[in-house]
Each structure stands twice: as C-alpha cells, then as structure tokens.
Design goal:
This protein is mostly beta strands and about 180 residues long. The protein has one helix and twelve strands.
Amino acid sequence: MKIKNLIMATLLLMLGVGVLFAFPLSFTTMQLQGLMPVTEIFRVEQNDEALNFNLADSRNSTVRVGSYSITSNDSTAQFHLFINPGEDGTDEQFAFVLDPGYTPEPGQQSRLPIIIRVTSSTAGAVSVSGADKVDKSLGVRGVYTANNDILFELGEILAEIPDFNPDIFATGWYSAAIQLQIQVI
C-alpha cells in the first residue's frame, strides 16, 4: 500500500511540475470559417382596429391598415412590393364598397374611393401612394447594424380617407380589399 501511495504521489508531483513548465502553443492566430445560410423574412401584420371603425367619423383622416417588415442577409437580394385594389387585384381603384346585403336608396352612393399609402420608418427608404395601384422597391442596405450585406425596412400601409358627405352614401357596412404581392428580383 505504501508503494502504491508513493507511486501516486510521484505521478501527481511530476504532472504538477510539468504544468508549471508548459510551453506556449506553437500557433499565434486562429481563424474560424462558417457559412451563414440565407435568411429572408417578410412579415405583414394587419391592424385589428382597421377591421371595425366608423367610416363617417373617419372623414379626412388616415387609417393604419397594417405594418410590414423585411429583412434579408442575402447581399444580392432585391424585393418589390405591389398593392392592387380588390381581393384578386383587378379592381380599377382602391375604395370602400357597400357590402352585399345592403341596398342603397336611389341617388345614394355605395363606393368611396380612397388612397393607399406605404410609408417607411427606415432612413433612406421612400414613401409611395396611389389611388389605383402602389408599387415600391423594398429594403435599405447598411441601416441594420451598419452592415451593407443586410437588407432591412420597417413600414406601414395606410388608407387615406377623403373628406366626404356621409349623407349621400348608403347606410351599412363598407369594406375595402387589397391584394399584396412581393416580388423577388
């Protein structure tokens, strides 16, 4: 037993002394390489308050329809936003239209034209608007963590409601539909 303890003590002493006299590693630089997968995220969120509001009380105002964000770490990515009137994008202009089931009285109007505006809160991005279509290049490089490889933009989709005489419009529910498309260029 004494021999075993003596051998163990000798080994521990040798290892401890060896650590004290360790030499530095032979390399002076270290390089890590990895591939970042391409990540592209486009998100649109509808504003719940835009689903039920008093149209007559909203005359000459702007209603926030929703918001959008785009992020891409692909240094060559380009995106374009298209907004067209109607569910299928084939209507002639953006408008609030009297819902089926409500019948206008003779001489009353049932269609209220509006303007759709896309604004950006990202520096360097432009805002656009239109009565019959909206198209906009999306994304600004270099504004997200000062990295020119990242395309980034935050913005809002707004409906500009004109000042109108509610007495000439039929009473009932009105709704407006838009078709939104993102094209990767």
